[in-house]
Automatic annotation (TrEMBL):
PROSITE patterns: SIS. Transmembrane segments: none annotated. Keywords: Repeat. This is SIS domain-containing protein. It comes from Streptomyces caledonius. Residues 26-164 form the SIS domain. PANTHER family: GLUCOSAMINE--FRUCTOSE-6-PHOSPHATE AMINOTRANSFERASE, ISOMERIZING. Pfam families: SIS.
């Protein structure tokens, strides 16, 4: 069994532990009314997008999400939360150092605290039970999102039950041989759709795209046709399923909580990788953490 296969299967247990941890870490997470930014890179950035929408939906305060490299220096926030599995990603560490110098309170949600992030963030929330050996993130990302979701009161036991269902049920038939995948979301699940597409690219080298569901009609639907898959993470807009099916694309309706639906996509990514005889623990051109050299930083 690959590292990533084992780790994605442990997600329900990790989510339960994160939900239990959230009350104890309440004081170092964004307080009601605080103007907050959540930052990350890659998968963590997409989790930040989902968490930002959830926090605003809960009425907890204005919340933005940024890739760490694109944080707007001119904006002021009451707190910045950094999501970083490794605690070593260059862009995250650079931003935390700048925020420290500017006196902006920061909290890092991290898998491994024995890394440079521990000296740069004001506060740490350690999810070492969700850390991973794999390059491809699954359980750390979804566990970090569960922590933030529970913090604003939007996590329930039914989410964990749906995740167990996502692990146990057969995948939709005949998807392993498809050549192109599109993932759609609405609200907080737009970030999850972006993450679903990233997983398909990383683990299986598939052509994968992602869009807000209502935007799909505004051009992207033209790529749909026989041999493609269109997957909705959460409820789809009225009539969209029929329009997609009319193109010949295989439509997958998200029946579970969108975060649990992402677990199904994790499984699909591994199934497609196996079909392509790829090793999901050795994704092409990727490392567990992106650490830039001085020369690379100069070129950015």
């Amino acid at each position: 069994m690959s590292h990533v296969a084992y780790e994605l299967g442990t997600q329900p247990a990790c989510w339960e532990r994160a939900a239990e941890l959230a009350p104890a870490r309440r004081a170092v997470l964004p307080q009601p009314g605080e103007r907050t930014a959540i930052i990350g890179c890659g998968t963590s950035y997409y989790m930040a997008q989902a968490a930002a929408v959830l926090r605003e939906e809960a009425g907890a305060g204005e919340t933005d999400a940024f890739a760490a490299s694109e944080f707007p220096r001119h904006r002021r926030y009451d707190r910045v939360v950094a999501l970083t599995r490794s605690g070593t990603t260059t862009e995250v560490l650079d931003l935390l150092a700048r925020l420290r110098d500017a006196g902006v309170p920061t909290t890092a949600v991290v898998g491994d605290p024995a890394t440079p992030v521990m000296t740069l963030a004001d506060e740490l929330v350690v999810l070492d039970f969700a850390d991973e050996q794999s390059v491809v993130q699954t359980r750390f990302a979804t566990t970090a999102l569960t922590l933030l979701r529970a913090h604003v009161g939007l996590h329930t036991a039914s989410v964990v039950a749906d995740a167990r269902t996502a692990l146990a049920e057969p995948l939709p038939a005949e998807l392993e041989g498809r050549g192109q995948f599109t993932f759609l979301g609405r609200g907080w699940s737009v970030g999850l759709a972006h993450e679903a597409a990233l997983k398909m690219r990383e683990a299986s080298l598939s052509w994968a795209e992602s869009y807000p569901a209502m935007e799909y009609r505004h051009g992207p639907i033209s790529i749909s046709g026989p041999g493609t898959v269109t997957w909705s993470l959460g409820d789809a807009p009225d009539g969209l399923a029929e329009q997609v099916r009319a193109t010949g694309s295989h439509w997958v309706a998200g029946r579970l909580d969108p975060l649990a639906e992402l677990v199904r996509v994790h499984r699909l990514a591994l199934a497609v990788a196996a079909h392509q005889q790829l090793d999901p623990d050795a994704p092409r051109h990727l490392t567990r953490s992106v650490i830039l050299t001085t020369g690379e930083e100069a070129v950015r």
